[in-house]
Amino acid sequence: MKFIHTADWHIGRKLQQVDLLDDQEFVLNNLIEEIKEQDLDFIIIAGDLYDRSVPSREATTLLQELLIKINIECDLPIFAISGNHDSRERLAVGQAWFSKHNFYLATQLEDVFHKFQYKDADIYLLPYFEPYEAKVYFEDDKLTTHHTATKRVIDEIYKNIDESRINILVAHTFVAGADPTDSEREISIGTVENVGVNVFEKFDYVALGHLHNPNALNEERIKYSGSPLAYSFSESNQQKGVRLIELTKENFDDRFIPIKQKRKMHNIVADYDEIFSKEYREKFDTENDYFSMELGKLEGVTDPMPRIKEFYPNTLLLKSKAKRLDSSKNSVNKEMLKKNPLELIESFYEEQVLDTLTSTQREVLEQIIGEVEQDETN
Amino acid sequence: MKFIHTADWHIGRKLQQVDLLDDQEFVLNNLIEEIKEQDLDFIIIAGDLYDRSVPSREATTLLQELLIKINIECDLPIFAISGNHDSRERLAVGQAWFSKHNFYLATQLEDVFHKFQYKDADIYLLPYFEPYEAKVYFEDDKLTTHHTATKRVIDEIYKNIDESRINILVAHTFVAGADPTDSEREISIGTVENVGVNVFEKFDYVALGHLHNPNALNEERIKYSGSPLAYSFSESNQQKGVRLIELTKENFDDRFIPIKQKRKMHNIVADYDEIFSKEYREKFDTENDYFSMELGKLEGVTDPMPRIKEFYPNTLLLKSKAKRLDSSKNSVNKEMLKKNPLELIESFYEEQVLDTLTSTQREVLEQIIGEVEQDETN
């Protein structure tokens, strides 16, 4: 069994108002070239094919072209699911005809209970779903979290699983390690729900979508492929590509294949004057790449953007380095947890707009925060 | 060759803010029952499958269900085109897979130059297109009207037509008789473009969509099917259904098959008091049907709608009979042609709102009309 695992194409995504469709077309066509190089059994696309529930006409056309190339022109079976960014109903258009050509797309929770048999593998397709759907499906009010709901779904699959075959699950969800690291623990303080890794123990491979970092989870048989492109500057240092999986009941081989990008993304942290020197600029493809600039010594520079764009035309973000809260930390900033809502908004505003709040803005914010707090205590 | 010709489903249509999806589901499922009764070769759907370029999720799901029933469950070939209400790109999703299951959908002008051979028939699918598309395609600046553009397209088809076979054209356009009637002549005074009927002389049957009245064109071999439901109160007296065509090179038989509707539409013209009597109400399925009321003797009645809705809950329109311009005429009102734009808007407003324009409204309108007229003379 040899297949490619990809996810999170997010076709139609914009980055700071810039349309990434050209980048997506370039990268995903390179992905198709990779498909042609390999002698694959199938490809898995683990959700978020589109970025929005109502994709633009251009996004619709691009996804169609890519799927036609893969499924019809390369005659390669596709196993795909909808993600939280997809509209189930819109993504499902054509589904009944796709399945007649070995393109299997699951968009409903109950689709996962149909096992697709492909050679010596059984493939289960679990689209993104909310806990309430499992609650309704199983008539069980206790299924209120992603973990309990997913566990219940998987337990149902286990009732009929044939452990002598290669069992593959495709899912779009946030899976956390059984023993979370510090940063994952911090995240789980918030509202983000995750699914414990031990739920999946009977599968030979779990092909995940949702997180854009291919190394988001450190498990041998449970992997994110990550997105094929960087979709925010925080992803600029991540490897972008697909996973090539070779799998028998005895052996498992996982290889990450980087896919050539049209443009790179760079987070520049430097002083304002520094970035215009020839030596500095030569480190980048300045005409082509996307830049986020975090610059020091901006004081006294009244309108920096025009000059920056002259040298780095695709500069999409500009922040002042001096105003940054605490640039030495990557994880959730401890200082932030001590601030009250008004202070949080204030420092965010200062960081983004490079100016302080006016008294009118403060007043409006105080009023809104007051109303929200009032609501919460009621 | 035996087939059903339908068009203008307009799935997702609303009538005065009322969602017609239930009505559409009912009627189109009855159409499918009719399909099962007949031993058909195929079905033609001549455009405007959706009502809007971005159909709702519910509309998307309903159209999918209907097409699956027809093409997959009944295993009936479909020949369809996009209409002016459809988004080509969105309707085309899945097209590459549909065609592998005898569901042929044309959304681009150039698709018409591919001839579909089905038994002894050649079928040409001409989606709705704008004259400029033909202008670009043929590199001919003279193609500025629907008539000249369509004629050029058809002439191109005629270069390779095989007149020994049954030739069927499917199109979504406004075809006018060679000898227009009075009412058609009046329409052509406006900006609506039409295509002359003699353009189509080499076809054995032309299956048209666009006009909702099945009898809009009085030609033996060039027919509108009309919409399967009434979509405005002006259509309430039209027969609604599909055409059943039986066709050989020698014989032609056309039968209009009415399709059972969920609700009827009624244009009521009466005095206010009259409609509440038992005898009057017994003429209708008052709980169920849609009503447009044009009532006399409304003077002095301050808030008529609640009482009307008590007896006729699906009353969607209410006008005062007294305020009507000239209720005795059905065709374009001669009086209207003499009015200037402000007067036209004024009388429309009075008819709809049952009140006169305020001086501020008049001023704004005068300004806008002035600007538009200025633009036109530039």
UniProtKB/TrEMBL annotation, chains A, B:
Keywords: DNA recombination, DNA replication, Endonuclease, Exonuclease, Hydrolase, Nuclease. InterPro entries: Calcineurin-like_PHP, DNA_Repair-Maintenance_Comp, Metallo-depent_PP-like, Mre11_N, SbcD, SbcD_C. One of its GO terms (biological process) is DNA replication. CDD domains: MPP_Mre11_N (cd00840). GO terms for molecular function: 3'-5' exonuclease activity; endonuclease activity. Belongs to the SbcD family. Heterodimer of SbcC and SbcD. SbcCD cleaves DNA hairpin structures. These structures can inhibit DNA replication and are intermediates in certain DNA recombination reactions. The complex acts as a 3'->5' double strand exonuclease that can open hairpins. It also has a 5' single-strand endonuclease activity. This is Nuclease SbcCD subunit D. It comes from Gemella morbillorum.
